[in-house]
Amino acid sequence: MTGQNSNYVILFRTVSYALKAEKILKQEGLPHKLIPVPKHISSDCGVCLLVHTDVKDKIVASLKGKVDIENIRKLTD
Amino acid sequence: MTKIKIVDARGLSCPQPVVLAKQAFESNEQVIVIVDNETALENVNRLGSKLGCEVKIEAKNGKIYEIHLMRNVDSNADQNAFVTSCAAGQCRPGPFVIVIAGDKMGRGNDELGYVLVKTFLHTVAEQAKKPDVMIFYNTGAKLTVQGSDVLDDLKKLESKGVQILVCGTCLNYFEIKDKLAVGIVSNMYDIVEIMSSAGRLFTP
């Protein structure tokens, strides 16, 4: 997944939620990547999912009702 | 007059030529490194570009190469990075090595440990100061084969000049040697040599 300009990060309230979401996306074959939450977003040592714009909506839809998403942020740099 | 330092690195094996070249370059504007094999040529060449110098290579008889490294006045950024990397005698000369001793980071919970090693490698690949060498052994070797979740990050590191060494015994033990997707198969001799000559070495 290159060109972070067109990427989003999906943030969760806990690490377990992020891992649960990762499992669901893996099963559904939706491309994503577990990364540390970018420094400019939070100083917590948390993890989040990096997803490409093209699949963002699909991913959000597939997590709906299964895992609570705390926030979705567009990466600008 | 500009001082030219000549480093004769013939007969020396990796990473010695690079280490000597780097040392010589710290106190000289121009350095000529003489090497007798292509690996050393490539490594010193890469060091030159990393330090932002002008690199000229002269091939001599019988696989002997003279590599001229000249400090490039225009490339301040790179030079500063170089100066900080070995400033104030804080670090010993020698490569910066990261050892990945398993496919988990820390002990206690394996699921968490796997998450941590993935995010660790992603962060190493993103940060400006990259290691010179990364060594993967035991279950760490599993991170370098097809289907690994961190292949993108490792390939990115490799494309930036990071040498990725994977323990051959380990690949063999897990029967995944034919699936190696990044780095080169290495052995205990190289691993011990690089670890012993490291200026800085850590394992997450």
CATH architecture tag of chain A: 2-Layer Sandwich
The residue ranges of chain A in which pLDDT falls below 50 over 5 or more consecutive positions are none
Q: CATH H-level name of chain A... which superfamily?
A: ACT domain
Instruction: List the helices and strands of chain B in order.
Output: EHEHEEHEHEHEHEHE
Please state the oligomeric state of the protein chains shown: heterodimer
Overall CATH architecture of the largest domain in chain B: 3-Layer(aba) Sandwich
Strands of chain A, total number: 4
CATH topology of chain A: Alpha-Beta Plaits
Strand content of chain B: 15-25%
- Beta-strand fraction estimate of chain A: 15-25%
Q: Averaged pLDDT of chain A, please? A: 88
Number of helices of chain B: 7
Task: Provide structural commentary.
With 77 residues, chain A is an alpha+beta fold. Chain A has a single domain, classed as ACT domain (Alpha-Beta Plaits). Chain A contains two helices and four strands; from the N terminus they run βαββαβ. In chain A, strands 2-3-1-4 form a four-stranded antiparallel β-sheet. The radius of gyration of chain A is 11 Å and the shape is globular. Chain A starts with 6 loop residues before the first strand and ends with a strand. In chain A, 25% of the residues are buried. The model of chain A has no long low-confidence stretch (mean pLDDT 88). Chain B is elongated, with a radius of gyration of 18 Å. A five-stranded parallel β-sheet of chain B has the order 8-7-6-5-9. Chain B has a four-stranded mixed β-sheet with strand order 1-2-4-3, with helices on one face. In chain B, strand 3 (54-59) and strand 4 form a beta hairpin. The interface between A and B is small, with 8 and 9 residues.
What is the element layout, followed by pairings?
The complex is a heterodimer of chains A (77) and B (204).
Chain A: E1 7-11, H1 15-28, E2 33-36, E3 47-52, H2 53-63, E4 71-74
Antiparallel strand pairs in A: 1-3, 1-4, 2-3
Chain B: E1 4-8, H1 16-27, E2 30-35, H2 38-50, E3 54-59, E4 65-70, H3 76-85, E5 96-100, H4 110-126, E6 133-136, H5 151-159, E7 163-167, H6 168-173, E8 184-186, H7 188-197, E9 200-202
Parallel strand pairs in B: 1-2, 5-6, 5-9, 6-7, 7-8
Antiparallel strand pairs in B: 2-4, 3-4
Helix pairs in contact in B: 1-2, 4-5
